[in-house]
Specification:
Elements: H1 2-69, H2 73-149, H3 156-179, H4 192-240
Helix pairs in contact: 2-3, 2-4, 3-4
Length: about 240
């Protein structure tokens, strides 16, 4: 009987221990459940807030896209045409500036060349006249020598006539060179024609002067031979006396 009481007391003790152990666990579970539900509520609130923010972002993006899509195609085309027009104007301005600079450079080069040609033409005319005067002086001295020495050259008259004719031709060519208008008009499409005329005039004067000098040289050679023969004859006559 006592053993039965001891077994019953043991069972009662075990049951009480189990109940005491189960109660905190249940409380903890309730607390955890409550906390969990509270956390769930926060989560739902957060999620709701996030979804609301996401909705605002999506709404803003859709508004900007709608604003861009609302731009009329005609306005875009007009902008493109305006940009093309500005580009063409800039290109034309650059081309015009380049053309103007090129024209000015050619004008300056032509003017410098014209001044140089005018100076050279004047120098050519002066030099040609100087040579003509020298040759004419030599011819005058040759004539004086012929007369002073009392020379007798059968071809003298013909040689003198030729030299005098060449003198006239040379004077005509030199006068033409001096009278030549060598002013170059840089507005002409081909100012080289004036340069060609100058070259031709210089060549004509040079040729005429060379022919004049050659004719004088022929007279000088003929007179030298006659003078040498006369000197020999005079020496021989003086020796015989």
């Amino acid at each position: 009987m006592q053993r039965i009481r001891q077994v019953g007391l043991l069972l009662a003790t075990l049951l009480s221990v189990f109940m005491l152990a189960a109660m905190p666990v249940a409380a903890d579970q309730g607390s955890d459940s409550g906390g969990g539900s509270s956390g769930s509520g926060d989560s739902s609130t957060s999620t709701s807030g996030d979804s609301s923010g996401s909705g605002d972002s999506t709404s803003g993006s859709s508004d900007s896209t709608k604003a861009e899509d609302d731009t009329p195609p005609a306005t875009i085309t007009a902008r493109l045409e305006s940009l093309r027009g500005e580009a063409k104007d800039m290109l034309k301005t650059k081309r015009d500036d380049h053309t103007q600079r090129s024209t000015e450079a050619r004008q300056k080069a032509c003017e410098a060349r014209a001044a140089n040609i005018n100076t050279r033409a004047s120098n050519y005319a002066t030099a040609a006249q100087r040579h003509l005067d020298v040759f004419s002086g030599i011819l005058t001295k040759v004539q004086a020598f012929y007369t002073t020495k009392n020379l007798n050259v059968s071809s003298y008259a013909s040689l003198l006539a030729t030299a005098q004719a060449k003198q006239t031709d040379a004077q005509t060519a030199v006068d033409a060179l001096k009278a030549l208008d060598v002013k170059i008009d840089c507005t002409q499409s081909d100012p080289a024609q004036t340069v060609a005329a100058l070259k031709q005039a210089v060549a004509d004067a040079r040729t005429a002067l060379q022919a004049y000098r050659s004719a004088i040289k022929d007279i000088v050679v003929a007179l030298q031979g006659a003078s040498s023969a006369q000197d020999k004859t005079g020496s021989s006559t003086g020796g015989e006396q």
